[in-house]
Amino acid sequence: MATVPGLKDPNQTVICIPYAGPEEDQEDRPLQVPSHSPYTSQDLPDGFGLRMEVYRAAWKECLDRVQSIIEALHAPKIQELAEEVRSAYSPSQTIPNLPYPEIPTFCLHGPAAFLQDVTREILETPNIAGCHLHPSDCTNITSAMKSLISAFVNVNAAETNPKKRPALSLASYDINMLRAWYDHLEEGTCTQLIVVFHQFEQFDSAVLQDLFYICSLHVPELPFVFIFSLSSQPSPSYLHATYPRDTLALLRVRRVVAPHGWPLAKQILEDTFFSLDFEPEVMIGPAVLDYIVDYFTRYNQSTDAILTILQLTYMKHYDNPLTFFARDSLLGTSSPAEAEQKLSKPTFFPFLDALFTRISLPSPAPALDPLFEPDGEPGDDWSDVTVASLLASMDVLREKYKARLRDIKVGYRLMNLMKGVLVKVGYDTSAKKGNLEVEKEDVELMRRALRGRCARESKTIGAAVKELSAAEAKELLSSMHSFFQDLPGHVRRKEDKARVKIVSWKSQLQRGMEEEELVAFLEAIGDWVTQYLNDRLKSLEECKLWDIWYTGSSPIPSEMINPAPRATIISALLHPYEYAQPDTESEGKAPHAPKLWELPDTSILFRRYLEGGKMINVYDWYESFAVVLESQRREIRRERRSDAVASRNKSDGKGKGKARAVEDEEEEEEGGEEWRMQVQARFIRALHELDYMGFIKHTGRKADHVLRTVFDVLD
Amino acid sequence: MADLATLSSSYPSQGTLIATLHALLTATPPSFMHITDAHCSRLTSCALKRLLDVIALESDHKTVYASASISAVAAFTPRILFDSILNALARHSPTWDDGCANWSCTDGARYNESLDSFIWGIKDVHDYLRRNRNDAAVEVRMVLLVERAERLLPELMVALTRLAELTQTPLTTIFTSSLPWYDIKPPLGAAPDPYHLYVDPPNQKSTLQNLSTSLTEYLPSGSHYSILTRISKESIQSLQAPYISALHSVCGHFVSDPDELTYLSATLWPAFLDELARLATEGGVDYEEEEGELDITDELKLRLLKAFSPKFREALDVLYPRLGSAPASSLSSQVPSRLNLTRTEKYILIASYLASTNPTKSDMRMLYRGSEGGRRKRRKSSVLTSSRKGKDGAAIKVPQRLLGPTAFPLDRMMAILGNLMVEHEEDLDFGNEGTRERAAEVEVGRAGLLGAITTLTQAHLLTGTWPTYKCAVGYEAVLEVARDVGVSLGERIWEAP
């Protein structure tokens, strides 16, 4: 357990804890949990480790990309803000004639990374002293003042103040000390004292009110500048809700909001997954985009939410055994020959078999797909196939997939560009409802592009092109031209035909043409655009083995991001086997509802609990529990008698607890004292488990009674 | 005495207080005084500090005045209080090079350990001040001013009120507070009764005077309009009086604190000048063409005030609660107009508003959509109920909406929420009739939703702690939110307006 990286890191949103086998001393091992993965039989022996490696590399690449996008978006805001902070006391920022000087204050609404960048940028400036306050520093006013003052004074002053005698001089939490320190500095060495309040919502507001008041008594002799870091939304404002007016009156608050919401989400998704110069190893599918849109509107509009969802998608994606082909076909070795050797071992045969079957299957929609030439298609003749050729054909497939993905990206980008130009010249290409959620629409468009369902859009665009005037057409063509011109090298070569076409159109238009000529000309362009976009925007699922690189419509395991704990616990108590043995039904066993006596103790007790009233008499509860256990014992004994050899295994296989195993030994003794003790012990254990989960409330009102906390459970 | 006169004129509403206090302190100072000022305590403290400075200047060969003024909030430990008082009385300011050493009459004497040593410290200061004059006959009078005395550490309150008696020195303690003495006095009559002084609330005349004295800098440094530099200072100054009286006539009804009015006038003044420049440039060719200094005509003055007067009200709405801050050029854009909430938060807000206003017994009728499909439409029309009741002669019940929110248990809100979501969220798949309730319960118990409740509590849109909450948002705001998610609020409220 100690080797899990990042477990102690509070900044990690998701941590992967590899399964390390059952713990040795686990006394309670009733339900043998088989692996949930449907792929186990097809996996490589070291498949898990390999995929973990590939996953880490792929996720790191994606994460770095997203972070660089966010950084780039933050950069201009940070610059602007740093400039304002530096000039906080300059005459252009302050207002003359105020009754008393205010403390310049900046409220940063955004993630912690944003604040870090801001403070780094600001504190790098010479002549500025900075200090960080955390909620734990400010439990009361004395410690708050102490941390504030010592942060400034101790930076460079430790050596310059040898004469200090603690008892005879100012207290270390006395602001006059800071004043004395500031006064002794030479003019201009320190023009601002910046105080950064981290996690502002967590501060005790009463302490901060006093702190602000005390600081304001010494402004502007001590040129304080406050920076609050808030994680909440600017509206409703936490600051105004929590602090009284007379405290707010001491501050000159300026709000700064980090880029957030739909514009940010759109930018991240577009530049990570639809960028022409970045090819992430895993392409997210429409189902993930759907979930992001849903989660974003419903619960949490932060970048962390997107990152978490993406990371989880990646993790889940690499559950598929084939996915270690995502990057290359080396299987964790250093050369194709070694990979071939590795794969030729007998233990790898089930995997090879599965892979070969997948490759030999006909492509999902070959007729629609001009990219798949029939020759060179792997698996034409199964007798020719060697391990090497299999690996080589994986490489071919990977290249094909990449080419297809590039097509989609080019199509999507071009469509967006044309839409932009058309909107600019006054054509409405889609029925947008208000300006508020334009970006949300764009994310929807991404989703449709991935599904290959953009025929309507491309048709609208084509139709709109046909109605353009000559000047507008010129504008459109020139922006299309520069789009193709700016494509990265390898993509541009492929799109050369389109580029040449546009160049020739452009020159035709430049030469000028008659009215009728123009109509025909635009007609041709419009048709071409529709055709071109339709060619480009086709579903990725038409590629062979797409599931290695593309998550497709496999749903995101949303329960992990947004679980429903209460409902889950209750339903787990009601139907424990559905949780512990998820694939019983797939194995062909008749799905039978287990009888009450077949359930684990806690579930039995919980069922009895649900039948009780508002208050439960513990003794009655115990009695009813004992009845069930009695019947359980009888049933098991009967089973054992009928099948002396198999009964033990069977009862274990059904997953009765250790209690059952223990019971087996003692069963011979007729229900004596021992049995009663056992029932009592099991009752108490189950009771405590329910208590631990919060189903019981103890009240002193009635002896031997406990209060129910859950009612009306819907089964 | 000239100083005293200027002091009184710059603090017009404190004029009486200044005169009284000056007379008392220079003649026969009482040992303990309490000044109550509920209206503009900051101004009063400033005035008192200035007064003490003035009195200190009046020291002559017979009497020496020394004073210390501290804020009780800043003196949050006894040690800070003792240090600041002694340093101020001895006119000693600790310097960094000196190791921030406190004042002491002999090297190594320590006065900040306990109340006892502090009292010795006061005696030493007294001796020290007297010795400084080399005149045995000189009389030393010390004044200790404590602002916001209601926040004074309780264990020190009695000692400070009796400081003259404890130290046997001519020392006057003055407390100022926005609360009257009987609200803050220590129990059991431990403190002596003070000499009471009150500050009158500011009247119109004094406020106007205050405003005009504070507006001293006429030209903002960073104005966009070059034309302003061509208008003579005198003519801009002549705008001051009408500007201030217009401001006072609009805002004076709502805000009486002179500080706040000064703040408003200072923040609006640059915008006012910009407006002047705009009117002057667009107003006529003659302004443009003329060289040299410009004059402001009466007509322009009137137009300016007329054009600007709506701004006062607008600025008051934003600046007084400090929703935005100066510079005032873009006030309205600074205030985030609507609540920025996620969809879940909106639903929670609606559900908690309903839980806070509807009576518990009405939940089933108002919200439950039973298995027979469609909500039961047995809602009583609010108009009918109230009029019928009125006819019967029984007391008309005031709608809960007007009485304020009631607290509700979390479970009830969740139940309402579940029903709202089943009915209005088409995107979520609640399945068919049979599984719908269960699906809704799962949906309502999601971690994201429970987290949203915490977020709303933190934003003070809900108040209370688990498991009972109250909705802290009014009808209008909820109505807007409900419109966003497509819930018709009117149908859900028991006593719809």
From TrEMBL, chain A:
Residues 663-672 have a biased composition (Acidic residues). Residues 639-655 have a biased composition (Basic and acidic residues). It is found in: Nucleus. One of its GO terms (molecular function) is DNA replication origin binding. Keywords: DNA replication, DNA-binding, Nucleus. Residues 29-324 form the Origin recognition complex subunit 3 N-terminal domain. Pfam families: ORC3_N (PF07034), WHD_ORC (PF18137). Residues 23-42, 639-674 are annotated as: Disordered. Residues 566-711 form the Origin recognition complex subunit 3 winged helix C-terminal domain. GO terms for cellular component: DNA replication preinitiation complex; nuclear origin of replication recognition complex; nuclear pre-replicative complex. One of its GO terms (biological process) is DNA replication initiation. The keyword Nucleus applies. It comes from the Eukaryota. InterPro entries: ORC3, ORC3_N, ORC_WH_C. Belongs to the ORC3 family. PANTHER family: ORIGIN RECOGNITION COMPLEX SUBUNIT 3. This is Uncharacterized protein. It comes from Heliocybe sulcata.
Automatic annotation (TrEMBL), chain B:
It holds the Pfam family ORC5_C. Residues 341-491 form the Origin recognition complex subunit 5 C-terminal domain. Residues 370-392 are annotated as: Disordered. InterPro entries: ORC5, ORC5_C. GO terms for molecular function: DNA replication origin binding. Signal peptide: none annotated. GO terms for cellular component: nuclear origin of replication recognition complex. This is Origin recognition complex subunit 5 C-terminal domain-containing protein. One of its GO terms (biological process) is DNA replication initiation.
